[in-house]
Amino acid sequence: MLPLILVATLAAAAAERPVPPDTTPFTVAVRFAVTDTTPLFEQPLGDSLLLRVQREGPLGWTVSVVRRGAGTDGRNLLYHSLEWHGPYPTDLFAWSFHERYFPDERLLPVYGYPYEVRVRLVDCRTAGSGATAVFTAGTVEVAWRQAPVRRAAGASPADDATGTRMTIILFPISRSNAVRARGALPRGRSGAGARSGSTEERMG
Known about the structure:
The protein is mostly beta strands. Helix content is 13%, strand content 32%. It has a 5-stranded mixed β-sheet with strand order 1-8-7-6-9. A 4-stranded antiparallel β-sheet has the order 2-3-4-5.
């Protein structure tokens, strides 16, 4: 009986041991002024993917990873679910930055592929609020590194580069903004633009 108790104790201790942080370095794909007017930044990610940062007019930018040849309407592999509506950490919009929906640094898995994308908003500032908010200064940096493969919720193994177990991620959002997030509609608040901080949050 004693050996069984010892084995169970060691197993429990191993399960409670904290997982060390991933120190794999990131490779910067694009870095540009948040006020840049370039319609699209695009870089290859491995042999079969494209990393894109697309300008969405005065709103800001969206980050996506799509399969090569998928066109502009290809499924964004940074989304954790195939059925999602509302603000998402891939949105670099002035109004959501002003209202602090997400951290200034975001780590996003590329679902179905062995990559992770890091998005940074560096020293960004905004003017206005709600739907009229615009960026006035700051830098966008998007980088990537290799990481374990994950599968999006609702995806089949055929949708992935390799079959893996389903993983669903949660992203930070304040209680006061939870209702508005469902409709993805900004609600203006008075006040000057927010200065970005150094907050870091892992998505997933």
